[in-house]
Amino acid sequence: MPPPPAARAKVLHAYAEILVSTGERSATLEAVAERAGVSKGGLLYHFPSKDALADGLLEHLRELTAADVAAMRSAPQGAVDYLLRTSADIDGEFELVYLAASRLSQGLYPQAREVLDEAQAAWTEALDDELGDPVLARAVSLMSEGLYSLATIGATRVDDAGLGDLIALVAQTAQARRGTAGTA
Amino acid sequence: MPPPPAARAKVLHAYAEILVSTGERSATLEAVAERAGVSKGGLLYHFPSKDALADGLLEHLRELTAADVAAMRSAPQGAVDYLLRTSADIDGEFELVYLAASRLSQGLYPQAREVLDEAQAAWTEALDDELGDPVLARAVSLMSEGLYSLATIGATRVDDAGLGDLIALVAQTAQARRGTAGTA
DNA sequence: GTCTATACGTGGATAGAC
DNA sequence: GTCTATCCACGTATAGAC
User: Fold this and answer.
1) SUPFAM superfamilies from the xrefs (chains A, B) (predicted)?
2) Of A116, A135, A147, the CB nearest to B165
3) Overall domain count for chain B
């Protein structure tokens, strides 16, 4: 198939940006269209309804998730480092769309839960594979979710130094537990 | 002052419930009024505008926060246990209102951030006082935030067993770190 | 494929009766 | 203190021109 029209991608991006920055309430068709640089009618040509727009975003998230998990598994510094660092940083397209979907899941599109659960499960599994410790993997996964949550509430951001300490804490704990119950 | 009318409290409770379960978009004056068992006009007598309603909720949260932090500090099993257990459980009035406020903070009422930040800071401090370890306190605080976040997304809930493991993990880590760098 | 114009429903808020 | 009736603005969606 020929490359999909750029307008489609621009609309999805604009939609995600508005969802994350100012919430579902402000993500009106008009606001999205304006930010994407098209008209309301133009937007509705690509996405015939608001539900279709949300579906489009979720589909996009599925695509991005697979790529992100792969990147996490092959990250040089390891999965823990990769996950925690990207969670505190909302710049990437994947993080943006993930957060947008979590907004949707809290509102009128509970279908979004499914996609979010899949992502959550995929990277908890990757963490477990690296750490060999399901409980610690779960703990790291929760911290990641907490970082996402705080980042979007706009709460005081964890600076890089704080993140480094957290990552070191996990490494230290992983090692300590390998000595006691890990290899059993 | 005489006890405030029961209607006021009922309206705030209904508002919080709708915010948490179906998001800001569905939290219309009409929906809130209906759930609270009053009319739109009746609601608007107590809260003259939607902003006033949100302000009322935030004020209520401030009151509840002080009480919750006090409970956390004097909890028999300790602050870590108390915080993680209450984070996974959305039944209490405090948790409901906290989550409702976090919905508001993501949307049109960034003022909510302030109140949420205060709560966050208060219990991170309580954790640090108990653990004597700022980094670990931060880690637990993030896990708590992650639990909140997942609980409302409606993701697979951490069962009690999983929670117990997490709490044990924190206790174990705290002890291990006291041996190395904690008492320096 | 993208735009303008328009119809329709709904949400927020006011006025005034009870 | 609570209700009903009503007004206005806005958001979604359709129709049809270009």
Assistant:
1) Homeodomain-like (SSF46689)
2) A135
3) 1
User: pLDDT (tens digit, 9 = 90+) per residue, B122-174?
Assistant: 999 999 999 999 999 999 999 999 998 888 776 656 676 689 999 999 999 99
Q: Quick one: tokens of B155?
A: 């993701």
How close are the terminal C-alpha atoms of chain A, in Å? Answer: 52
Residue B101: which CATH number? 1.10.357.10
A5-46 residue pLDDT tens: 789 999 999 999 999 999 999 999 999 999 999 999 999 999
Whether A1 is covered by a domain: the verdict is no
Q: Quick one: B162 exposed, middle or buried, by C-beta within 10 A (0-12, 13-18, 19+)?
A: middle
Residues 9-48 of B with CB under 7 A from strand C: 28-30, 40-41, 44, 48
| Measured CA angle at A147 (ends A168, B94), to 5 deg | 120
Residue A41 contacts B, CB cutoff 8 Å = no
Amino acid letter at A83? L
Q: Which has the closest alpha carbon to A97: A11, A19, A22?
A: A19
B183, pLDDT greater than 50? no
Q: Using CB atoms and an 8 Å cut-off, which of residues 44-83 of chain A contact chain B?
A: none
* pLDDT tens profile B51-86: 999 999 999 999 999 999 999 999 999 999 999 999
3-class DSSP state of B151: helix
**Is strand D in 7 Å reach of the CB of B41?**
yes
Taking the CA of residue A14 and the C1' sugar atom of nucleotide D18, their distance in angstroms comes to: 26
Is strand C less than 7 A from the beta carbon of A171?
no
- The reply to whether B145 falls in a domain is yes
